[in-house]
Amino acid sequence: MMRWLGRWLLRVLVVIAAISLVAYAVDWTVYHLRGSPQSTVAVSQFMVVPLKDQKTEYDFLGTSNVNCAVALFPQGGEDPCWHLRRNPNQWENVGAPAY
Asked: Superkingdom, according to UniProt (predicted)?
């Protein structure tokens, strides 16, 4: 019984990996055939600054337009536009405070 279950689980994982690879390959091909389309998305940027006594400060840095790839997956070193539209806030962490 366990051997049968293990085989099916392995098959399911292999199928999921194969579908993921095919989806990325198709996305990459379409992205390059369309001439690497890009767009911009307005993103709010914040900085997280750790303070003494386990306190944290959140600073608003402003809003800026960020380049993005018109694709399903990250392409050309840029995040996909659909992801930036769904997550319009970018957080930048600063290191530990100097005492």
From this structure: Bacteria
User: Who contacts 74 (Cβ-Cβ below 8 Å, separation ≥6)?
Assistant: 80
- Provide the token pair at 86: 């769904």
Q: Cα separation of 75 and 68, whole Å?
A: 9
Structure tokens at 54: 């386990």
Question: Computed over its alpha carbons, how large is the radius of gyration of the chain?
Answer: 21
Give the full edge-to-edge strand order of the sheet including 38-50. 56-69, 38-50, 89-93
The single-letter code of the amino acid at 41 is V
pLDDT digits (tens, 9 = 90+) for 47-95: 999 888 888 899 999 999 999 999 999 999 999 999 999 999 999 888 7
DSSP 98: P
Strands 38-50 and 89-93, by their bridges, are parallel
